[in-house]
Amino acid sequence: MLGKTANGLFWMYRALERAENIARLIETGQRIALTRLGSSEDEWRSVLQTSGSLDAYETFYDEVNRDHAVDWLLRSKDNPGSVMSCISQARQNARMVRTGLTTEVWEATNAAYMVAKDSLARKVPDRDMPKVLRMLRQRAGMVRGATHGTMLRNDVYDFARIGTFLERADNTARIIDVKYYVLLPTVASVGSSIDNVQWEILLRSVSGRGGFRMAYGAQLEPRGIATFLTLDRRMPRSLAFCTSKILGNMNYLESDYGVRLQSTQMAEDLQQRFMRMSIDDVFDYGLHEYIQKVLGDIAAIGHQIEIDYRFYE
Amino acid sequence: MGDTPIFDEMNGMGDGIRRPYETFNNWFEGENPKELRAKQREAEELFRLTGITFNVYGRAEAEERLIPFDLIPRIISGREWQRLSKGIEQRVRAINAFLHDIYHGQEIVKAGRIPEEMISRNEAFEPKMIGVTPPGRIYTHIVGIDLVRTGPDEFYVLEDNGRTPSGVSYMLENRETMLQMFPELFSTNRVQPVQTYPTDLLKSLAACAPASAGDRPTVAVMTPGIFNSAYFEHSFLADQMGVELVEGNDLRVMDGKLCMRTTQGYKAIDVVYRRIDDDFLDPLNFNPESGLGVPGIMDVYRSGRLTIANAPGTGICDDKAIYSYMPEIVEFYTGEKPLLENVPTWRCAEPEALAYVLDNLEELVVKEVHGSGGYGMLIGPTATKKDLALFRRKLKARPSNYIAQPTLALSTVPIFTKAGLSPRHVDLRPYVLCSPQGINITPGGLTRVALKKGSLVVNSSQGGGTKDTWVLED
Q: How far is residue B36 from each of residues B11, B162, B170, measured CA to CA in Å?
């Protein structure tokens, strides 16, 4: 496989994953605005922060409000991380790596792009917002489904999956990082209605409410939520889950290519040193510091993959 | 043209449905036009989803457009096709012999059949190819011969495309679309398959590999990149052949071989089917500004360790002044009379021809010798006074840049319109593969159709559409 193709696959799937995550973030933000719990401006600010685009946003807008924030995250061409930009980027990459994709995957990607382009051509009216967001999430799901159902399990698939899970881990880590303070074990605010809202937001933004209830019971409490998002091995968006998937696919590449590369070692290290800690260890280490460390490691692995598999040279 | 009767391939001269169309016509008469219109929209949706689009240059956002597809097939009988194939094969053999000759002994010049300056002063002549023999002695691995028709038995070659003929993906996707929309048509009509093209292409390219390649030569398709207007076709062909689609920045010359950067290091390529122009191939040997090519690729080529398809320097056979010599070229190299006719052509470089052209401009078509895509030409009968005056000036200023031809009464095939069937002018581009193992012509090709009533311009960049082209088994 060409290095360029591996690069294209990696970024195609990162972009798709990001598009879906941003759509989910917007849904969460909308939800908060509608239930009018907490301060809406603060929530949109933290949504923008989670998306990693608050600074860029502030160069375009003087104030944070719902209308601007939603438009920025959903449709803005000035925001390379908007849902529309991500889907365009995913499709652009898919065109580049067309020879590595099955017809089904290509068509699902192209269809996602056409639907997005069509429904995001103009500012989305409030009443259509839930429908549009749902549709976008479904379209991303269809690409994933086609990938799962039709792609040969070779290096093409490995790069696609590594891209997906690196992006997802990054996203989950950001979500926790922006809200880490509500998960800290403090005596004062536990059980207050503000915290309940914040915890709910955290779980919603990873589509994890149902899963949490099943695994940890109906009682929302910070320690359980922190565990669920970081160390849980069954939660498909937890840091541990994503890391083990990344490592798994890197191991497949290793056995396929017959060489052990530095990026695999780095993923192994992350798994060993950070994902095996208990939640008490995490709190002892410092939740914020832990997340920062994981974010840095994820970025470093991504960078090393580019070098190891000759994405650019 | 005006009053010249026009031959319609479905209805003849108005004397009843022609034989190849009989079965189709019976089917068509039983169909509900409303449902067919819905099918037409369905076809467009299919094209869009598959991504069969071409990029339009010169727009702010590289816009992707569909080439309109018309659902009425263009049907050719097996007998007609057989005659055409023989003529095409003869012509393509002659073109390859001609290319070898002009880059070696130039016997045809010595024999006085073509003036020396037609070759040496031709912009498309590539001095770096002098004395170079491509692996297998093949220059035009893939050729598209553009044909037009004026009557039941009258076919003319309009153009030879030996540089990088495009459009073959439309031939394949048009058929795919027809198969999906109207499967029943293919059980009542015995249509020869075109779907073997990608496999044939790979086989043909592999057969042209240099001696240094092993039993299973590595083939790659080279594209200028994702923003090229024909990118879809490049990726389509690479995908269908199961080979890598490379760009200049994936390639590098290492140890005297052309290599591509893979996830596991550099890997040698034996045959490159390049879809970029000669000029951009090698910044060391050609255009130093080219960011698309590979420094040193021509040196590998000249050392005989790489096949470039088509060979650099083949563009000269697309030249419209050279075209006018094609009957002589065919005779010179094959010793036979040409089976396919040329359109009579005035070379404006010759004073008498120029005088005739200037006197009869209103009835002629004038083309630039290096032009393509239907640009830079004048169609006398439909031109404005201003255009005619402009071309008079151009012809006088640079006569050797132009040729002129009579306006042919191009045949028509009906298209499906809101008002039912309506005749439109068409041309045909069959695709030809050459290798030391022989010449392979896919039964079918790309039919381009001028969608505007009366228009003779079929180019997709100027409002043309396409049709599925059927060659029947008789």
A: 20, 38, 21
Rounded CA Rg of chain B: 23
List CB contacts (< 8 A) between A110 and chain B. 48-51
Give the pLDDT band (50/70/90) at residue A186. Answer: low
The CA-to-CA distance between both ends of chain B, in Å, stands at 33
CATH class of residue range B211-305: alpha beta
A197 CA to centre of own chain = 21
**Minimal-distance CA residue of chain B relative to A93:** B226
Nearest to A174 by CA among A25, A311, A300: A25
Question: Quick check: B250 and A3 CB within 8 A?
Answer: yes
Which among B463, B356, B472, B467 has a CA at the least distance from the CA of B411? Answer: B467
Give chain A's end-to-end CA distance (angstroms, integer). 14
Q: What are phi and psi of B458, to 5 degrees?
A: -100, -5
Contacts of residue B335, defined as CB under 8 A and 6 or more positions apart, other chains included, come to none
Residue in B closest to A109 by C-alpha: B49
Task: Grade residue A189 by pLDDT with cuts at 50, 70 and 90.
Answer: low
B216 close to B262: Cβ distance less than 8 angstroms: no
Interface test with B, best of A10, A91, A98, A305 (most B CBs within 10 A): A98
> Residue A41 — pLDDT band, cuts 50, 70, 90?
confident
- Nearest-CA distance B43 → chain A (Å): 15
Q: Closest by alpha carbon to B236, among B251, B221, B250?
A: B221
* Dihedral (Cα; B444, B448, B454, B455), 10-degree rounding: -150
State the pLDDT at residue B185: 96
Measured distance CA(A70)–CA(A132) in Å, rounded: 12
Question: Which residue ranges make up each domain of chain A?
Answer: 1-151, 152-313
Q: Please identify every stretch of chain B with a pLDDT value under 70, giving residue numbers as ranges.
A: 1-3, 54-63, 371-374
Cα-based distances in Å from B60 to A3, A93, B63, B64: 30, 20, 8, 12
Nearest to A144 by CA among A199, A101, A187: A101
Q: How many CB pairs under 8 A join A and B?
A: 57
From the number of C-beta atoms within 10 Å of its C-beta (0-12, 13-18, 19+), residue A50 rates as: buried
Read off φ and ψ for residue B339, nearest 5 degrees: -80, -30
- Counting residues of chain A whose pLDDT is more than 90, the rounded percentage is 78
Please indicate if any CB of chain B lies within 8 Å of the CB of A110: yes
Residue A260, classed as helix, strand or coil, is: coil
Higher pLDDT, B261 or A39: B261
Domain layout of chain B by residue ranges: 211-305
State whether residue A148 sits within 8 Å of chain B by CB: no
Q: Would you call B336 exposed, middle or buried from its count of C-beta atoms within 10 A (0-12, 13-18, 19+)?
A: exposed
| B316-358 confidence digits (pLDDT tens) | 999 988 999 999 999 999 999 999 999 999 999 999 999 999 9
Helix (H, G, I), strand (E, B) or coil at B373: coil
Q: Half-sphere exposure (CA, 13 Å, Cβ side) for B422?
A: 11
Distance, CA of B45 to CA of B56 (rounded, Å): 19
CA distances from B470 to A42, A102, B27, B37, B52 (A): 65, 28, 16, 21, 20
Query: Are the CB atoms for B83 and B29 separated by under 8 Å?
Result: no
Q: Which helix (H) or strand (E) holds B347?
A: strand B346-347
Question: What ipTM does the predicted assembly reach?
Answer: 0.87
Q: A257 touching B, CB under 8 A?
A: yes
| Sign of the Cα pseudo-torsion (B6, B11, B13, B18, in order) | positive
User: Alpha carbon A139 to chain centroid distance?
Assistant: 16
Contact (Cβ atoms closer than 8 angstroms) between residue B382 and residue B389: no
Residue whose entry in the numeric block shows the structure tokens 């990608």: B198
